[in-house]
Amino acid sequence: MIEPWVNQAIAKIEADFQRSADTHLIKLELPALQGIDLYLKDESTHPTGSLKHRLARSLFLYALCNGWIKEGTPIIESSSGSTAISEAYFARLLGLPFIAVMPSSTAKKKIEQISFYGGQCHFVEHSSQIYAESERLARELNGHYMDQFTYAERATDWRGNNNIANSIFEQMSHEPHPIPSWIVMSPGTGGTSATIGRYIRYQRLNSRLCVVDPQNSVFFDYYHNRDAGITCCNGSKIEGIGRPRVEPSFIPGVVDHMFKIADTASIATVQWLEQLLGRKTGASTGTNLYGALLLAAEMQAKGQTGSIVTLICDSGERYLDTYYNPQWIAEQIGDLSEYQAKLAEFSRSGKLT
Question: 98-103 and 120-124 as β-strands: parallel, antiparallel, unpaired?
Fold first, then answer.
C-alpha cells in the first residue's frame, strides 16, 4: 500500500504538470535555404527555464514510485546547474531538502536560482568529482541520490505520454515537411537523445537522430569505438552538455549520426541566433543549432528538401557573466572570428564551409 504522503507528492507533481502549457516550436526564417525548414523547440519557457524541467519531473515520479523518496528524504543531485534548478523546484513543491553537487565554475545565475528554490549548493573543483561526492552526501544524510546520469533514460516514458519527442511530432503535423529529416540533440545525461531515438523507432518514423557533442566530452568517441571506459581530463565549457565519462543514460544504438562541435562554433552560433530571435540563448543551444546548420547545408548541397528540428535548451540570461561576456569568451573559449565568418556566409548562400 502506498503511503499517504507519497500519494500526495505524486498528485502535487501531476497537478503542476496540468498547469503547464507545452513549449513553443519556432520556425527560423532562413531565406538562403530552399525547401529546407529549420525549427527550434523552445524549452526555455518551462517554469524553471530549461529542458531539464521535464527530466526533473520524471526523475521525481520515478523515485517516488520506486519507493526511494519518503516524507522528509533529503534529495542530492550531481548537476552543472539546470537540472539542479529544476529539481530544487520540485523538492520545494514536496517540502524536501535539496543539495546540488556541482563544479565551482557553474554560472552564478544558476547558483542563485537553486538558492531561490530553497536548495543548497555543494561545490567540487572538477566535474569528475560530482558522482562520488553525491553518493557520500546521500549516505551521510540518509538521503536519496537522484543520479540523473544513470536514470534519465529510464525515468521518461519514451513511447509517448507527452514526452518531448511526442510533442515535437504533434507540433510538426501541419508543417510543409511534417516528418523531420533530422532531429538534433546534444547529450548531457543522454536521456533526451535516448527518448527521441527510441520514440522514432517505436513509432516507425522516417526521421533520423543526430547527436552533437562539444569539446572535452567523450560521447562522440564512445559512439564510434564503443569503449565505455574512456575518460576526458578536462570538463566541458558548454554547461549542461558534454561529460568526462560515458554516462549510463547515453544509448548510442538509437543515434544515426554524430558531430563534434567546437566551442568557438557554439558561442558564435548563439550570437548569430540572437540577431534572428532578438533574445539570448544558452551555449548548448548554439551546439545544437550549429549541428542543424551543418545538416541543412549538406541537404541543400545534395538538392534535398525537408525539415530539421533542434532545441533551445535554456535562456542566455543565465550566462551574462560567461557566454555573453567578451572578456570571458576571449579567456575561456577563444577567437570566434572563423565561425562568425562561416555563419555570415551561411546567411548569404546556405553554405557552411
Answer: parallel
Ordered strands of the 120-124 beta sheet: 120-124, 98-103, 75-78, 144-145
**Number of helices (H), then strands (E), in the chain:** 13, 10
DSSP state of 293: H
| Cβ contact 172:309 at 8 Å | yes
- Can you point out the beta strands (E) in the chain? 25-28, 36-42, 75-78, 98-103, 120-124, 144-145, 182-185, 208-214, 257-261, 306-312
Gap between the Cα atoms of 96 and 94, Å rounded: 6
How deeply is 206 buried, as exposed, middle or buried, from its count of CB atoms within 10 A (0-12, 13-18, 19+)? exposed
Q: What average pLDDT does this structure show over 228-251?
A: 93
Q: What average pLDDT score do residues 125-153 get?
A: 94
C-alpha 241/C-alpha 261 separation (Å) is: 12
Q: Which has the closest alpha carbon to 269: 241, 290, 242?
A: 290
- The per-residue pLDDT for range 65-123, each reduced to its tens digit, is 999 999 999 999 998 788 999 999 999 999 999 999 998 888 888 899 999 999 999 99
CA distance 229 to 231: 7
CA-to-CA dists, residue 242 to 99, 197, 203, 220, 263, angstroms = 22, 18, 28, 9, 11
The four Cα atoms 180, 182, 186, 190 give a dihedral, to 10 degrees, of 80
Q: CA 173, 175, 177: angle at the middle one, nearest 5?
A: 95
CA–CA gap between residue 313 and residue 41 (Å, rounded):
8
Pairing of strands 98-103, 75-78: parallel
Confirm whether pTM is higher than 0.90: yes
Whether 160 shows a pLDDT value over 70: the answer reads no
Look over the chain and give the mean of its residue pLDDT values, rounded to a whole number.
Answer: 95
Percent of the chain residues past pLDDT 70, beyond the cut: 99
Bigger pLDDT: 148 vs 108 = 148
Q: How far is it, in rounded angstroms, from Cα 182 to Cα 173?
A: 15
